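tmp note - NitT/TauT family transport system permease protein
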Amino acid sequence: MPWILAWQVASLVVGSSILLAGPVDTVLRLLALLGEKSFLATVGFSLARIALGFLLAFALAVVLALAGHRHPLVDRLLSPGVSALKSVPIVCVIVLLLMWVGSRSVSAIAVFLAVFPAVYLSCREALLHVDPKVSQMLGVFGVAPVRRLLAHTWPQVLPYLVGTSRNVCGMAWKAGVAAELIGSPMGSIGERIYNSKLLLDTAELFAWTIVVVVMSWLCERAFVAVLARTGSWSQHLSLRVGRPRSACAQTGVRHQAGRQGQAASAGPTILLKDASVGYEGAVVASGLNLAVLPGDRVLLADRSGTGKTTLLHTVAGLQDVLAGLCRRPAQPTMAFQESRLVEEMSAVQNVLLVMGSAREEAACARVRSLLSELLPEAALDVPVRRLSGGQRRRVEVVRALVAPGDAVLLDEPFSSLDAASHAQAAEFVTRHLDGRALVVASHLPDDMRLLDATSFSLKNGG
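out:
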């Protein structure tokens, strides 16, 4: 209200409606515009082209950013062009477009060129901050790329895109109306603004400016509201598409010469021969010899720092063996030392994500039944970020046992559980192992008894 009052006072001081129309004259002219038969057609003409340019730019920018993140060559090819678009004055681009495509299409293209760089750069930056540990976990479970994108990547990228959209929606209307103002296509808002200038009708100029501001605000609110909802939509959709890859796709052997896949043969599910494990050439444990047959249960009970987690990561295929031979399971499942859950999904959804489709009622019922063995019913359908550390740990244990595979790898699976929950979870593991190989890293003294496992020492190599 103070700004409107200051506007009215300034209009009275100037004393000329041509130089500065007051708020009263502007509102009266706006009401007159709203009563015109051509008003909706004029707004619709501009809206259609601006929306088309915006949506095309947004969609293509996201797709190319995803492609550039996956294939750095794509990003290197696009970066110079994106930098140029970000720096070139939009007015110069509009003039060129008028000569190339004519006035009726220029606004859509101008909006596209104005919006694309901002969305592309925002999405590219967001992809750099997607939690790599959860992505790694989904890879171990063999979750298909499309399912990873919908369940994990898109919800993490979304806040960046929502923030960017609050700016580029207004930018789109500015670029679109500027293009129309220069090209003056018949029936557009830009043409009406241009005519107002020719007729020195400042009140109508202000009235159309208000229309543009309101349309920009409405478009921003509508688009951001829909965009923000796509996070939950994509996670629900992820359970209906892209089943986890079959176990045969994961078969392979890793040895000193590098990653040389070979079909798994009859014999041990996991085999180490004179193997050395570590990171980037730094050996953590060496001379390891281990054969784990289907149904075997092995406990790694050495002290911290001896390489238990490193060994499990090597067996899971997350890093190469530094020396010797390591035959991995065809399809491992794993509970990592730290929590690796999709935070906005429920316990049921986190398990379904790695093992089946939410459309299969039998699979969903089975998952709920298994989770209920370790968790209260109230914990099954809320986002896992709301669960306690012990409850989250039990979700990960259930996920590792329910997911399809031929070997279960558990890294400190009971570390955050009390004695009763610990015994209950260990009994759950043994009951649902179903003849698979089991390798567990744990410091807890009772785990060998609870799991009926044999001990393997990394310090002694066997």
